[in-house]
């Protein structure tokens, strides 16, 4: 059973002016798609071909892990964004953030600082720990919270910090990209993840 590139949850130009159609054409249409194609090539004819994407992410290493995790991470990231979104969360998400970080403003500042200073090709995540508390976690390369051995974390929100996520629109200015990210955060998706 071959993996497929999941459809974007919005049109290619829907995130403008914050993230351009050109960025999505490259980031989704080329980079994300290449991870899917490479993963299929790596698992074809092996016992992994019958496993779910999550199972592969949680049990593989090397090139298989890198491509599987990048497929999972990118699919999750696209759902973290939405047109006409952003602002502040409400309800349980807002309550959980205030409980963990003191205020939404403090959370946003801490998440932004963590992302801006996350070295190299990387991801910054808001996760729910097994005890229900929220934490900000950085991963490098294809690192993914669902693959962290011994830690049960539920990803709630992520920002892609690989240069291909922002270089067309913002060049090397990660802080400007983070401003764009906050204007697009899909708090409804975060709420679904929190309730899961």
Automatic annotation (TrEMBL):
Keywords: Iron, Metal-binding, Oxidoreductase. Gene3D superfamilies: Fe,Mn superoxide dismutase (SOD) domain, Iron/manganese superoxide dismutase, C-terminal domain. Its EC number is 1.15.1.1. One of its GO terms (cellular component) is cytoplasm. It is an enzyme of class 1 (oxidoreductase). Coiled coil: none annotated. PROSITE patterns: SOD_MN. It comes from the Bacteria. Destroys radicals which are normally produced within the cells and which are toxic to biological systems. This is Superoxide dismutase. It comes from Photobacterium angustum.
């Amino acid at each position: 059973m071959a993996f497929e590139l999941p459809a974007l949850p919005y049109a290619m130009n829907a995130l403008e002016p914050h993230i351009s159609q050109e960025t999505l054409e490259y980031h989704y249409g080329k980079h994300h798609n290449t991870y899917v194609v490479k993963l299929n090539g790596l698992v074809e004819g092996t016992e992994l071909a019958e496993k779910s994407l999550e199972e592969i992410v949680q049990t593989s290493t090397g090139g298989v892990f890198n491509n599987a995790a990048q497929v999972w991470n990118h699919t999750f990231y696209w759902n973290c964004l939405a047109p006409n979104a952003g602002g502040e969360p409400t309800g349980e998400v807002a309550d959980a953030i205030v409980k963990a970080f003191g205020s939404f403003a403090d959370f946003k500042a801490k998440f932004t600082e963590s992302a801006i200073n996350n070295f190299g090709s990387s991801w910054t995540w808001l996760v729910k720990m097994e005890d229900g508390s929220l934490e900000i976690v950085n991963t490098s390369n294809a690192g993914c919270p669902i693959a962290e051995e011994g830690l049960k974390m539920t990803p709630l929100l992520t920002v892609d910090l690989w240069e291909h996520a922002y270089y067309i629109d913002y060049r090397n200015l990660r802080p400007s990209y983070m401003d764009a990210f906050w204007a697009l955060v899909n708090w409804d998706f975060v709420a679904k993840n929190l309730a899961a």
